[in-house]
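Suppose a colleague, Dr. K., hands you the sequence of a protein chain of 294 amino acids and asks what its three-dimensional shape might be. Before reaching for any lab equipment, you can write down a predicted structure in token form. Begin with the sequence itself:
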Amino acid sequence: MIKESNWDYYRTLLAVLRQGSLSGAARDLGLTQPTIGRHVEALEKALGTELFTRSQQGLLPTDAALALKPYAEMLESTTAALLRAASGGNEGIGGTVRISASEVVGVEILPPILAKLQRAHPGLTIELSASDNLEDLLQREADIAVRMVEPSQDALLARHIGTIRLGFFAHRDYLEQYGEPRSVEELRSHRLIGFDRQTAYTRLMTKRYPMLDGISFAFRSDHSIALLNAVRCGLGVGFFQNPLAKQDADLIHLLPEISISLETWVVMHENLKSSPRCRVAFDALVEGLKDYIA
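The predicted structure, expressed as tokens, is then:
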């Protein structure tokens, strides 16, 4: 018979699954390695099954541990959402708001918007998840998200911000050395900067502009910020959000007839529209992103 288990044991399970060792999980959770070991043993005893086997590569999860992972992640996100809801208090606007955005939006665009928000509401605590992996708003992995895909779920409240355009840009130092491409054929001979693997952006671009298919990159990375900084440092020609590039006078827009449009939304669960802290954060993101696009 399976016995009821402490949530802390499932949090430990997740940490061991993510880190691959007791010591890594201990560092992640700020606990001692023996405590982590006791949690795993207690959970295995409560469930009546082995969760990990030892190997030269570390702790290997059993099928039982892998089957538990999505449910433990759901507990994790629910617990975090409960803590954020409880942090709001009853006086003034305060508490924690978790915001999800892509790497570029989270690192390059949102910080000044969030700084303005916190100056207006110093009681707010902001958690920013800057990742190209989407967090599930329905599962409350985040309170608010900035999305480049129109949300389809009825339970989500979405505000369309407008269109962010991207184009080819290069640093003037690069162009002084290699010259400015005047056509796609000339672009092919330049040092191009792009993703290490195919993305939704590259698929959209080659579908819209078939002549770009087959272009090879002299600098590749799977990190969006690394790609932006490569353009900024003069490594070659790469894609940049137009309004972001306008902030740097040394970035030159190339072949403006080639562009990609990203429709942008700010989204949150409709149940949060009555939450003062989420409402002011939502409105601040809408206003700040509209100013950015303008």
